[in-house]
Amino acid sequence: MSDALKGHVLVVDDDPALLKVLGALLTQAGLTPHPASSAKDALALLARRPIDVVLSDVRMPGMSGMELLAEVGRGWPDVPVLLMTAHGTVPLAVEAMKAGAADFVLKPFDREELLFTLKKALLQASHTPEPARAGGKALDGLLMGQSRAMTEVKALLVKAAQGTATVLLRGESGTGKELAARALHEGSPRRAGPFVKLHCAALPDTLLESELFGYEKGAFTGAATRKPGRVELAHGGTLFLDEIGDVSPAVQVKLLRVLQEREFERLGGTQTVKVDVRFVAATHQALEDGVRRGTFREDLFYRLNVVPLWLPTLRERPEDIALLARHFLDVHARSNGRPPFSLSDDGLRALQTQPWPGNVRQLQNFLERLVVLSDGPVLTGADVARELSRQPGIAPPPVAAPLPPSDSVTLESRRKDVEKEALVDALKRAGDNRTLAARLLGVSRRTLYNKLEEHGLS
Length: 458
Fold this sequence. Notes:
The chain is an alpha/beta fold. Among the domains are: about 10-125, 3-Layer(aba) Sandwich (Rossmann fold); about 160-310, P-loop containing nucleotide triphosphate hydrolases (Rossmann fold, 3-Layer(aba) Sandwich); about 410-455, Orthogonal Bundle (Arc Repressor Mutant, subunit A). The protein has helices at about 15-30, 40-50, 65-75, 90-100, 110-125, 150-160, 175-185, 205-215, 230-235, 250-260, 285-295, 300-305, 320-335, 345-350, 360-375, 380-390, 410-430, 435-440, 445-455, and strands at about 10, 30-35, 55, 80-85, 105, 165-170, 195-200, 240, 265, 270-275, 280-285, 305-310, 340-345, 380. The strands form four sheets. A five-stranded parallel beta sheet has the order 2-1-3-4-5, with helices on both faces. A five-stranded parallel beta sheet has the order 7-8-11-6-12. It has a two-stranded antiparallel sheet with strand order 9-10. Strand 9 (about 265) and strand 10 (about 270-275) form a beta hairpin. The chain is globular, with a radius of gyration of 23 Å. The chain starts with 7 loop residues before the first strand and ends with a helix.
């Protein structure tokens, strides 16, 4: 690998010798390995410390790698899981991808190929905001709503799902584009096939191309075996390309061919692979501007924009906030082991007057904060105002108490004091669970660890 890797990798395998070998390999590459000899031990370790990627064997006594994948998806949706298997076939890869795996590695594995796969997973994880990866039942609420805007969107989704035309989902971040893509797949005749997704903005060109189209053995350093790409894995199903506006012109050319001809070649290969895939793309960018600037191909834009579908912002449908709030309060109360919560009239009005620039995902994240940090069971306008004041960018901060005269008090020192106090408070309320503390503060886990180190709290 040309670039040094950084990150904490949880390695799960019942073979002590393999754990030792992988630990040495990852340490040499600059990564920090955390060995676990069973899925049960892995889950306990995940609850205690920050993990960036899980690398797990598929076949283990007790809980299998696939079962571990499901548990990680429920409890730590922001942590990608890579599966290792000596029985690696395309059908198994499809099953793993459908279940939420970030990738898979074949045993016996090549050192460079393993590190190459880890690098892709680390890159994608670092570019994916945690709220956007929130899984489980909380996702079910993102397309809820009885407003006219949402009623029209859902009607269009039902119609679009029945065909095979490419759909371009457009709208601001947090409006539910990935869930809309899933709804298109689940409502289509392809629902029994795989739903494969790829975040295009997370990977540089070289990695994105191999991730899309796969590669042949020897195509580059680390390519020890043939490996299918996401296009091939989605055969018979749906491929969701998120943030399509960030794809480079070089990759755009190859995407255009797949969209037009439904065929491609793997990297390093000469054999043409034909696929039956339905494409759904998403972007928050104005692709028309990219066409005018010459950064996005006009012919690709028209190929993608066959069925354009706009997801409304939350400020365009404030009448849906009450329904969404009740849903998320119920979901987060159950998931955090809290009693049921309800909103008072003034609490609901306080939510409805906010602009929510992060849309439904921001509202979802904020309501989880309320559930964890409030005494309940009725959340009032005062509870909402208190938590809004703790989130910069949502509402003006509260007026600070007068400070005693001091030449040493600066804006920077006050910022650090307030930041440290917020960190301590979040850790206390989260019972020192740092993943939960990061969610309460509305930051990524990595940002939280950096801040804890900065303030001497690590």
